[in-house]
Specification:
Molybdenum Cofactor Biosythetic Enzyme, Chain A, 396 residues, alpha/beta, Molybdopterin biosynthesis moeA protein, domain 3, six-stranded mixed beta sheet, 7 helices, Molybdopterin biosynthesis moea protein, domain 2, elongated, homodimer
Chain lengths: 396, 396
């Protein structure tokens, strides 16, 4: 039996490279960028008018002139025009190129226009005011988005701006999620008294969807030859096998012995944690096997605490640790790391974690009332006090 | 010109009902539940063995017997069997029904099995130990998930467990996102010096995808008759029109006058905020119109600050306000509400907001380095001090 920290270390050292693929930028939200995104020209690409109004020559204004005949209009999207006579002005629109021979934009709010003449109502202007200068934000060649960023709406805008209609992203792993347990029946079935419906595979599918990973699923009966035959094939076909169930001490918990018989390298079995102690982790040359215990909450928290960091590390994403402050005392006697369900709330910028008391690892419904797990360390002490802060793992 | 608070109030009072639809539960992550989900039977549905081991009769153990002949095995997924002779025991597996005539489970770790006899190695057991009692978590008829919940992986597990293969969720609004501005060219185009590529529509599409809303897009040239004709049709076809651009004072900012001509009710135009002051909001009987200013950051923050809360309110979701603590002093002189980009970090459960200084509302690339906007209130004072806390809007 190893500690949560040791287990995490082993997992983070067993990452996998799924390769890189090119996809349309508009399909890339949530994916991991695998190239630096560079400015293809200056931003803004020209001296850009940033207020609707008139453009004049600064020196003429400084010399006291306040009434300017309007020569023409410079709309956004039109080639740059030139102010022919510096004692005149041009009307200019937000987003337009600043016309030649002008270097001040005065907004309409400060101007009265009558009979083709703009009279300026203010006595002070600054050179280059209301002009977003060429290259002020970024220079051509600047890196705008670093490799390994998780793409969000903010990055989508930048990708569009620089014309990256296709981008390189990390390929997604091929994953299959397999449940075991003869007590499990289909969601659409009417279970007999000793049966329950399958739920863990669907929970895992949803947790992986949060990472943009779509997965296949299977349910295998607790029959060793059948299990073994199926696993032989899955080991060849997938990058990751996620199991739920059949890793504990039961007569029909065949997975650990099947893995041994198939030559899967065991990296660990059992972690000093609750829930999810009998977690089994191993690998072949091309496949990682996460075999989670079958209790719903064990499967749930193990996926978050181990598969998520493994995936992020594999694709090169750094994840900030988040912590929260216990809102109530918690007593927990076993000498295990405790992943406790909590409801998160914010008070003056402090993140508070209120424990949600469930009925143990089988009580799936209690997850509905929580937002995250708080990770209370394995320690001699059994009292974790209100006001102390600990790492959390959100799932909403 | 109205305040951010007034604008928000008007928007939250102009919600829309998109109706309800039934979808497969497995497709429902991120959707809004529109029915209470009720336990179809007790959970657990039977006295459930929660450790692999042996099941015995408590009284026999209490009377001092420690060696029990194994009668049979009760696997998970098999109908309940009966211990024939109370001085014997049954092997039981996690997830199995507790056999008749037994009321204690002793885990394998505390038992030695030899020649079909299990010798118990501990001298103390508790009645019902390692048994997850029928109905302990939830009773048949209990509400497990309340209506109006945003569905996550946790809810998916519960839906599967109670056999809700199809569920009622809020319908999604039909949205079209329309950009204007003749300076804008396609992402795949090579812009001329006075042109830039379209980006706002893609940013908005991505921001709506975060809400699971898929949207259509269009780009309309700055030509009033064309704009008007298209808008007439869109007002009939969609629940929501989102515009980017053409709402300010420019000569080609036709939208406000077109809306008036088409009989769209204006609810407000202009909000005392930066960025995004010229935001226009209105409605027809069946359509809401959010017309955002065209600067990238204006569009971005307005969608988060107004469209998001409007959508959540429309579908009945309560959203907790989140706040963060300024990590540095911020000086902002204009008498406007300031949506400032910040990078979030966690320290001992405190959420810290570090301002990311961009170059104004056109500097889209600066959003890449931030995670959220902090909302600094419109006030006489211009200094917001390190350590003060204010509401934030996350976008990652």
């Amino acid at each position: 039996m190893i500690s949560v920290e040791e287990a995490k270390n082993i997992i983070l050292n067993a990452t996998q490279n799924f390769g890189v693929e090119e996809i349309p930028f508009i399909k890339s939200v949530g994916r991991i960028l695998k190239e630096d995104i560079v400015a293809d020209r200056d931003f803004p690409p020209f001296n850009r008018v940033s207020m609707d109004g008139i453009a004049v020559d600064f020196n003429v204004f400084q010399n006291g002139q306040r009434a300017f005949k309007i020569e023409a209009i410079q709309p956004a999207g039109s080639p740059q025009i030139t102010l022919q006579n510096k004692e005149n002005c041009l009307e200019v629109m937000t987003g337009a190129v600043l016309p030649n021979n002008t270097n001040v934009v005065i907004r309409y709010e400060d101007v009265v226009i009558k009979n083709g003449v703009a009279s300026i109502q203010v006595n002070e202007v600054k050179e280059l005011q209301n002009i977003h200068q060429k290259g002020k934000d970024r220079k051509s060649g600047d890196v705008l988005i670093d490799k390994n960023k998780v793409i969000s709406a903010a990055e989508i805008g930048v990708l569009a701006t620089v014309g990256k209609s296709n981008i390189k992203v990390a390929k997604l792993p091929k994953v299959i999620i397999i449940s075991t347990g003869d007590e499990l029946v289909k969601v659409t079935a009417n279970p007999l008294p000793h049966q329950i419906r399958r739920s863990n595979v669907f929970t895992l599918v949803s947790l992986l969807e949060r990472l943009n990973i779509s997965s296949e699923t299977d349910h295998i009966t607790d029959d060793k030859p059948i299990l073994k035959q199926k696993i032989v094939n899955y080991l060849k076909q997938f990058d990751v096998l996620l199991f739920s169930g059949a890793v504990s001490k039961g007569k029909f918990d065949f997975l650990p012995e099947i893995f041994t018989e198939l030559g899967v390298e065991k990296l660990f079995h059992k972690v000093t944690q609750r829930p999810g102690k009998p977690f089994w982790f191993g690998q072949t040359e091309n496949c990682k096997i996460f075999a989670f215990p079958g209790n719903p909450n064990s499967t749930f928290v193990n996926c978050l605490a181990y598969f998520y960091p493994w995936y992020y590390q594999s694709v090169g994403v750094e994840v900030q640790e988040e912590t929260a402050i216990l809102k109530e005392d918690v007593t927990f006697k076993p000498n295990l790391t405790y992943f406790l369900q909590v409801q998160l709330s914010d008070k003056f910028g402090h993140l508070l974690a209120t424990p949600i008391q469930g009925n143990g690892s089988g009580d799936l419904a209690s997850l509905v009332n929580a937002d995250a797990f708080i990770q209370l360390p394995k320690t001699e002490k059994s009292l974790f006090k209100q006001g102390e802060n600990f790492p959390i793992i959100r799932y909403r």
